[in-house]
Every structure is written in structure tokens, then in C-alpha cells.
Amino acid sequence: MEGLITKSCKLGGLAGAVLALSLLAGCSQGPDPAQRAVNAANRADQAASRAEAASQKAQQAAASAQAAASRVEQAASDAKAAADRAEAIASKTMASGPRRRSSRRRKAAPAPEATAPAPSDSGAGAGAPSGAPSGTP
Question: Which candidate among 26, 48, 59, 119 keeps its CA 20 to 30 Å from the CA of 109?
Fold first, then answer.
């Protein structure tokens, strides 16, 4: 923006120089060349003002575009993080699914009494398990 101000100051100085030269060169011709020089200087000043305003608008647009780019970058980062989380959840869900089904299908272990052999009629202690007391005291 400082460059634009210096350009407008130079342009104003140039317009002043043109006005001075036209006054010096055109003294014999009357006020018409001086008036034209003044008009030209005014037009140059207005053009410099318009250029400065356009420069300010361009700077504002650039700042706005930079902010929008930053928001887009942040949104892309958030979307990637969400996709990673969803992928992790999906992989955990797919990996743990079959284990649950197999644990539900297990049958209860048979009772210990059903696995012991039936007592035989041949002797009092023959059919008893090894840890159980025999029929004789």
C-alpha cells in the first residue's frame, strides 16, 4: 500500500510539473492551456484515488481468500480424522464379530456326576472313585 501512495504522490508531482511547464510555455497563448493542465492534474489525482481504492479492495479480497483457504484446509483435516476414526471402528467391529458368535454356541459342560462310572454290584468299594471313602470304616 505504501508503494501505491508513493506512486500517487509521484503522479501528483508530475501533474504539477506539467502544469508549471504549460504555464511557462503557454504564456502567450492565454489561459486555455493552463486550464487544460489543471484539468489533467485533477483527472490524474482522481485516477490515483481510484487506484488506491482498488488496491485496498484487492488486499481485502486476498485476506478473505486466505482465510477461506485456511478453513478449507481445516475442514479437510477434520474429514480425514473422522474417516480414520470410522475405519478404526469398522476394523474393530469386523475383527470382534466372529468371537462373539462362537462363545454363544458353546454348550454347558456336563455335570461331574454324569461323567463318573456307574457303581457295580460286585463289591462295596469297587465302583467308588479313588478319593471317595469306601463302604468299610
Answer: 119
Interior CA angle at 17 toward 14 and 18, to 5°?
A: 90
Q: What is the grid cell recorded at 11?
A: 503522479
12 neighbors 44 (Cβ within 8 angstroms): yes
Q: Please state, in angstroms and rounded to a whole number, the distance separating the CA atoms of residues 86 and 29.
A: 86
* Angle in degrees, CA 45, 47, 50, rounded to 5: 110
Query: What global pTM score does this model have?
Result: 0.40
Secondary structure, 3-state, 68-98: HHHHHHHHHHHHHHHHHHHHHHHHHHHHHHH
Q: What is the residue extent of each domain of the chain?
A: 2-95
